[in-house]
Structures are given as C-alpha cells and as structure tokens.
Design goal:
heterodimer, A: alpha+beta, Helix Hairpins, Immunoglobulin-like, Cytochrome Bc1 Complex, Chain D, domain 2, five-stranded mixed β-sheet, elongated, B: 527 residues, mainly alpha, Cytochrome C Oxidase, Chain A, 16 helices, 67% helix, globular, binds protoporphyrin IX containing FE, binds copper (II) ion
Amino acid sequence: MIRGLTGLSDEIVQNIFLYIAVISVSILVLITFLMIYFTFRYHRRRNPHPEDIHGNLWLEILWTVIPTLLVLSMFYYGWTGFHALKKVPEGALKVKITARTWSWLFEYENGLKETELTIPIEKPIHLQLTSQDVIHSFYVPAFRVKQDAVPGMTTSLWFRARDLGTYDVLCAEYCGQQHAYMLTKVRVLSEEEFYRWYEEKGKELQMKKPVGVPLGERLFQEKGCMACHSVDGTPRVGPTLKGLFGKTIVVMTEGKERQLKVDEDYLRKSLLEPNADVVKGFPPIMPSQKGVSTEEDITELVRYMKELK
Amino acid sequence: MPSFYEENGRFRGFWAWIFSTDHKRIGLLYLLSILSFYAIGVLLGFLIRLELIAPGPTIMRPQTYNALFTLHGVIMIFLFVIPGIPAIFGNFFLPIQIGARDVAFPKLNLLSWWIYMGGAALAILSLFTGGGPIDTGWTFYVPYSLRTPVNVPLAVLGVFVLGFSSILTGINMVTTTHQLRAPGMTWFRLPLFVWGIYATAWIQILVTPVVGITLLLTLMERLVGVGIFDPAKGGDPLLYQHLFWIYSHPAVYIMILPAMGIISEILPVFARRTIFGYKAIAFSSLAIAIVGSFVWGHHMFVSGQSDVASVVFSLLTFLVAVPSGVKVFNWVSTLYKGSIEVAPPLLFALTFIFLFAIGGLTGLFQGALATDVHLHDTYWVVGHFHYVIFGGTGFAIFGALHYWFPKMFGRMYHRKIPYIAWGLLFVGFNTLYFPMLLLGWQGMPRRYFDYLPQFHSLQFLSTIGSWILIGGLILMFGNLVHCLFKGEKAESNPWGGATLEWQIPSPPPRENFDEIPLVSKGPYEYR
Ligand code: HEM
Ligand SMILES: [Cu+2]
Ligand SMILES: [Cu+2]
C-alpha cells in the first residue's frame, strides 16, 4: 500500500502525484534523450547510409506491456486514494454547504449559518453540498479537495485539517461574471476554541436576537446579497441599495422602459420576481428568492432595505 | 500540364475558388479561413494573458474577460483545431496520396466548406446581437448557459451547424479511402497520414451527431422551456455533461489523430528510412479511436457522478494512454540508424513528440482519481490541454505547412528563418504554458479574471511567454506568406519523399494524375 494514506487528503494527493511524477519524468527524459541522441548520432553527415528496419515484434510487446503495467499501477493508487477521500469516517462534524451566485453559506447542525467555514483541528469534517442556482465547485487547495455543488442534488466531501490557520476557499466551476471572486476562508481552530465559538454562536441563535448585528443585516449576509449589492453607495454587479427606498428609478418591464417609485411592493417583487422589472443598465441575473427564503425572511429583508439611508 | 491554379473551370477569379469542387482548391479555401480564425484566436489569447499580467483588473472588466476566454476556446476548438488537419491537409493530400483524382463526393466537399463558413458567420453574428457575446466557456455547461442573458442560442446554433461540416468531411474521407484507392494501393500500403485521417473520419461521423443533439436540446430548453437539463424544471445537469463529453472527448482524438498521421509522414522522409512499426502505428490509431470513445467520464470525477462510474472511466482512460505511448516509441525508433536531415518539417515533428509527451504525461495525473480531485478545473488542465492541442496538433500543423508548402504552392520558403522562428516558438511556448502546470498544482482555478497574490509571479512569467510565442508565430507565418509570392520555384520532390504526392508536379495539375498510377511498393520505401 502506498505510504501516507493517513486520511489527510493533501498527503494522499501529494503522494500519488509524486508517484506519477517520477514515472512520467523518467519516460520524458528517456524519450527526449533518445530523440536527441539519435538525431546527432545518425545525422546525415555522420551516417550517410541509413538502414531500413521495419519493426520488431518483441520491442512492440515490451513497450505495450510495460507501460500497461505502469499505468495500471497509477490507476490503482489513484483509486485507493480516491476511496480514502470518499469514505467519510464515523463521528465527523457535519456541515451543509449551499453555493449560490457568488457566495457560500455554511450551515451547522445546530442551525448556525455562517459565510466562512470554521472547523476544529484534527476532526474529520463532512461537507454536504448543494447549489441554489448554477453549478459551483467548492475547492480548498491547501487540503487538495474539491467537489462540485450541483443544483437539485447533494454531493459530499470530507477532509481533516492538520494545522491551525486560515485557508483559501475558491470556486472552481465557472459560474459567471464574479466567478473569480467567489472566495471565502476555512478557519481552523483548536478544539477548545472551536467549541467555545460554536456554543456562543448557538446561544445567540436561540435568543433570536443576535448580539451586535441586527437580524436584517444578518440575513443580507446570509442570503449572499452582498455578492452583488453594496449598502454604501458603490454599484457592484447590481445597483447599490443605499437610499433606494422612495427613489424614482428607471426599469425595463417586458422590454419597455418605464419609471417607478420604489415602495415596499417593489422591493418585495424584486426579491421574488427579479426579472419582472430589471433596473436599466444592469443585466437580468439576480437570483430569485422564491422557494429559497421564508416569508418572514423576506419581510425582514424588505424592512432592512427600507432603512438603508 | 497546367497546374490546378491555372485551370479555373466554369468561373473566373474569386468565384472560381469559392465554387470550385477541386479538392485542392477547397483545401486551400479551408487553409485561408481556418488560419484567419486561428489568428483571431491567438489575438484573444494575447489579450487574456495581458489581463492576467497582474492581479486586479488590468485592461478589461470581468464580463469582457469571460467573453474573451469563451470566444478564444470556441474559435480554437470548433473553428481551428477540429476542422484543421482533415479539412486542409486531408482534403488536399488524401486523394493524391491514395492515387485518386478527387474525393468521392466533390460537391459535398464544397458544401461542407460553405457550411463551415455559415456556422462561423452565425457564431460571429451572435457577438453583436441579442444579449451580446457568450460567456459560458466553450463547454456551454447548464444550467449556467440556460440562464445567462447573453446570446447563447445563436452561438450554439453556429456550433451545431459547424457539426454538419465536420460530418460531411468525415463521410467524404471514409468513402474516398474505401473507393478510390489506385490499383495496388492496398490497406497496408496506405501512407500513415491516410490512416490517421481515416480513423478520425469515423469518429467525426459517429460522435458529432451526439453533440448536435445535445446542443439542440439546450436550444429547446432555453427557447421553449422544455425541462431536460435544468433541475428547476425537473432536468438533470449531469446528463448534459455526459452528452457533451461523449462527443467532446473523442473530439480530442479528432484533433490529435490526424496530427499523429502527419508526424508519421515526416519522420521517415527526413530519416531516409522506412517507418518503424507501420502496423503498430496504424492499429494504435484505431485502438485510440475505439477505446477513446468510452472515457468521457474522466471530465466528471468531481461532478457528482457515481464513484463506480468514476473508477471505470479512470481505468479506461489509463488504457487509452498505452496506444499513444506505442506511437511515440515507434516514432523515436524510426530515427534509429536513419540518415537524418534536420530540415524545418522534421524539427517541428520532433518538437511535436516532446510537447505531446508532456501533454500526454500530464494527462496521467488527471486520469488518476485522487490527483484529479485536486487538479480538475485548475490551470493544470489549461497547461495540459495546450500542450496536447497546441504543442501537439498546432506544431503538427506547422510541420505540415513546412513539409507540404512546396507541393501546395510550387514555391520554397526561406530555409533559415524557420529555425529562428522555432527557437522563439519553443522558448515562448514553454514559458507560457509550463508555469500554468505549476499554478494548477498550487491551486489556481481556471476561467479566473483575477487571482490571489501568491499566483502573481507565475502568471507574470506566463504572460511574458505569450509575447515570445507570438513573436515566433509572426516570424514563421511572415516567412511563409512572403515566400508564397517571392519564394524560389520548388522542385516536384524537394525532400525525396516516396508517397504519391511527391511523384507529380508542384503544384499538382487539376486532376492530379495524368494516368492513375499503379502502386507496387509501400509509402516509405526509398530504395
Ligand atoms: C498565443 C496563443 C495562446 C494563448 C496566449 C492562450 C492562452 C490561454 C489562456 C490563458 C487560457 C485560460 C483562460 C482562463 O481559464 O481564464 C486559454 C484557454 C483556452 N485555450 Fe488558449 N491560448 C493560446 C492558444 C491556443 C490554441 C492554439 C488553442 C487550441 C488549439 C487554445 C485553446 C484553448 C481552449 C480550448 C481554452 C479553454 C477556454 C475555456 O476555458 O472555455 N489556445 N488559452
Ligand atoms: Cu464559480
Ligand atoms: Cu477527455
């Protein structure tokens, strides 16, 4: 068995990588060396009289069989590694991931929802992924793991962190304009620190009144609105929501331009049927909250937006 | 005897070209159109690289970038490298190499060029109409391609139409090879280029309809709302990926098999000895074509497809590596005890072997399940496929141009300049693409408008490489174009080739042969 199938995904991948690399580089060097050597040795100046050799059955067999064995060994190691990457150990910490254009949401078993992934060191983490809209892919290069998040489907992935620290999470499946900015972090804490954090957050959640951050703002983060909207006046992919309520804006309704004054109904409709009235100068790409958010959340979001002066 | 340039047939001037049914003229029509698209593709590649020279927005906005890499990919794949060798060199040389006066269906042949131009025109039109240039990547993955507001339908229709051109060319090549071989041209006396085109033609006929249907279904879903792929309508996005790769993986062999054929032509001529392992090379083409049709799932190891499927696809993928290796070993052995002249075509052929070997070997890392989980959709893949299709097929096309130039145009190019151009191409290519492999291993995803600071130095290096490479391209094509008009007259057989195209005048007469030749020896018997 190949060394290092320790359950650490980065080591598994690295060992198999090195195994294939050693063989590949040897083959490349061999081929290149022979090619250059023959070209010099049998250059027309040195060897004006070529010899016709039509082939050699033993050589053909040799260079069919040996490479076949080599690639089968690569296949086998790749497979064992894959098996280790796929087989979730008992007692793993479960986290649900929802991907959507262009942000990540992590949901813990106690209902806690976060936009960064915080995990305890050494403990296996079992991620279950899905997507709200198009396909995304959850990728942590430091752990060398990746899994697509597909709408209408749950996929899964697990890994274990060996070192404390913060690691980049990137989206690896092209998902539109801001694909390159669909980033977040994995924070690895010591077990003790993690559970302190986890329980504190859990308590806030039960009190329904998070300390510090008001509920509307929290939802705005959680639903990924900030991937496209600012609340400070700078336009992003979508218009800024600052001072929107009460403003007169120009929208395209069924291809026709019209003016309207932003009221509560309009805000609500923007969330549920975003493509009904499209703000002029912006692409019709806002995802709908229909079937995604509860009625209460929508009401809370609308209230939040009304207050963005 | 007047050459095919002088015999116009019914029309005059320009019309005598675009309505010609002569396989050589059609080959040249393709040459001009395909290389023009290639030039555009390279320009787009240059702009992509320029944007990536530094982190943060440099010369464009994200939406522009996404449109650029999509167009770059669509042009390079569907307009350059898939039609490339069969339509240009297959058209021009396959009939001559088997001792025929034309292809089996000359009018169909002309039609396929028209369809090619029609498909390209639709794709171009899509840039300026509807919601603007597509931003889906050349793979058109659903559900993104169903939802993005840009002009997906017209672009997809363009690619759909291009498929017909590919199928018609395939039918022509298969039929021609079966029906029009000169007396004495047995299957095992066929030049290996013909074998390459023949195997490719079967793939074109058999798998192109699959992508056609897939694209039609995508259109139906987008325009009419039938729920096939979009889970929101009860469809399955993985079904799309399966259907797409059932075509697009074998399409990789449509790109590479004819290139391998070219290499098998060039090596023996410049080594002045027979090819090593003729049958091994011929049969490995067929093996690649057959096994290669069952490996598409290796593009989907992290897509959510079942693990069992992934394991089977991984195994088959590794098996298909073997026949490619067999070819490389036979090529290298063809140099053994030869009498080698390192003329420009051979230099490109040897470079093909080196770059293709890197491309193939980097593919092993992606075929292995565990490593692919990390490497999938990163710059590793971008590096890998440029090594295979640009380092492979691209360099084979450069080799073919330098090999057959005197035959096609009746003139010889400047013999020193290709060496300088080669130096630039070789250094530029590796500076451009090798850093991509490292970037991928470090975790840089592909199709990224912007990147994290740790990737900067390699990205910068890669951009410098693109400038050197493009310098080489300009020098190489500049030389060829200049000598098209100003080059010395070429002899009929400047390289001492033994295949039939070298036994007729340069450029060939309208019907190639005065009298259909009687073939009595193999293609690589020089004595
Ligand atoms: C000067 C020459 C070239 C340069 C500088 C170049 C550069 C690039 C770069 C940087 C990307 C990655 C874009 C991204 O993922 O964000 C890319 C993608 C691609 N290139 Fe090239 N390339 C060149 C030539 C070619 C050639 C000759 C071919 C094919 C024969 C080709 C086919 C492709 C394809 C299919 C993609 C994928 C597009 C996608 O992700 O949808 N390129 N190229
Ligand atoms: Cu993405
Ligand atoms: Cu493939």
